[in-house]
């Protein structure tokens, strides 16, 4: 971790700054990006956020959302801004491949890269790093970064506090995951004191479902949930026809895997979705069931110990069969 003076020196030499995050940004990715954006703007930096794709509509209300540029929608402008940048913040990802269509242009950029992240096994593309795999969220690390750089905590405005609160809240499952430490609660307390209206943030994110999303959820619970009792495992297998039938958009599958994990006695849950070009997997677990190992060894992925993701080029049925077949490998852990 760099010192306050080192961070201040890096920022003092950076006249044009870009903030990036991973493909299909979630609450932590967008919340941490916008929180850092607001702070850098308050310090009179020339800063832009560029992302590789759209993101869930339930994040559209976040302060500063209109400043977010989507690379495929305006490639010429985004390319120009990246070419001119002297510093690129890489938030909530540890490998440039996670930026999808932006990977090539980011690798080619001569700008210094500052990775702020909490995922395991960083690729090593960065020049500077604030990395802590024990952190609950990248938004937590952004708070630490800002706090280490400022002379007065009052520089954390209500807009910054709101964005960082949203990031931490979503990545901790509303503060119920084991990553929610005493330090996390202390930071949350400071964010509320700085103007984050916690009840409004919860309302905006969790009570903004479309009718189609609720019908899709009901369909999955009734028709796509499979419980494998002998391995204390549950899964949803969602076809591309399901996605089309309910007009599923970005963010509509968010949190679905947690319903499988909520079944009494379940220790491992999977959401397996046919995204046409690839089969995508989201894994969640409790206790000592290693989601990150399963994703890395079998599905070209990775992530946190109890929350990870991956993908496969097979068809939906073959991927479901493969997932079930590896459960024997983790039999002793699953049936504890």
TrEMBL record:
Pfam families: DHH (PF01368), DHHA1 (PF02272)
Gene Ontology molecular function terms on file: nucleic acid binding
Domain DDH stretches: 16-168
UniProt xrefs under SUPFAM superfamilies: DHH phosphoesterases
Record domain DHHA1: where: 245-328
Name under which the protein is recorded: DHHA1 domain protein
């Amino acid at each position: 971790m760099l010192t306050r003076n080192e961070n201040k020196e890096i920022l003092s030499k950076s006249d044009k700054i870009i903030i990036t995050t991973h493909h299909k940004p979630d609450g932590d990715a967008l919340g941490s990006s916008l929180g850092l954006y607001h702070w850098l703007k308050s310090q009179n930096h020339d800063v832009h956020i560029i992302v590789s794709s759209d993101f869930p509509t339930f994040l559209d209300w976040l302060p500063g959302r209109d400043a977010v540029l989507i690379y495929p929608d305006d490639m010429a402008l985004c390319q120009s801004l990246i070419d001119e940048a002297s510093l690129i913040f890489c938030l909530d990802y540890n490998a440039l491949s996670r930026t999808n269509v932006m990977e090539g242009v980011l690798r080619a950029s001569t700008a210094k890269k500052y990775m702020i992240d909490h995922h395991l096994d960083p690729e090593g593309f960065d020049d500077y790093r604030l990395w802590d795999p024990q952190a609950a969220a990248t938004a937590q690390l952004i708070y630490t970064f800002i706090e280490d750089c400022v002379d007065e905590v009052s520089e954390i405005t209500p807009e910054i506090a709101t964005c960082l609160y949203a990031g931490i809240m979503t990545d901790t499952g509303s503060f119920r995951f084991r990553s929610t430490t005493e330090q996390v609660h202390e930071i949350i307390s400071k964010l509320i004191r700085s103007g984050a209206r916690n009840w409004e943030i919860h309302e905006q994110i969790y009570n903004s479902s479309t009718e189609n999303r609720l019908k899709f959820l009901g369909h999955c619970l009734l028709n796509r949930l499979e419980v494998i009792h002998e391995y204390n495992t549950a899964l949803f297998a969602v076809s591309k026809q399901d996605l089309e039938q309910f007009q599923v958009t970005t963010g509509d599958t968010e949190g679905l895997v947690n319903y499988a994990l909520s079944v009494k006695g379940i220790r491992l849950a999977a959401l397996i979705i046919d995204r046409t070009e690839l089969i995508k997997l989201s894994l969640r677990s409790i206790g000592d069931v290693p989601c990150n190992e399963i994703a890395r060894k079998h599905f070209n992925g990775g992530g946190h110990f109890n929350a990870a993701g991956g993908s496969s080029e097979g068809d939906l049925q073959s991927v479901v069969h493969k997932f079930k077949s590896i459960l024997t490998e983790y039999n002793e852990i699953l049936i504890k």
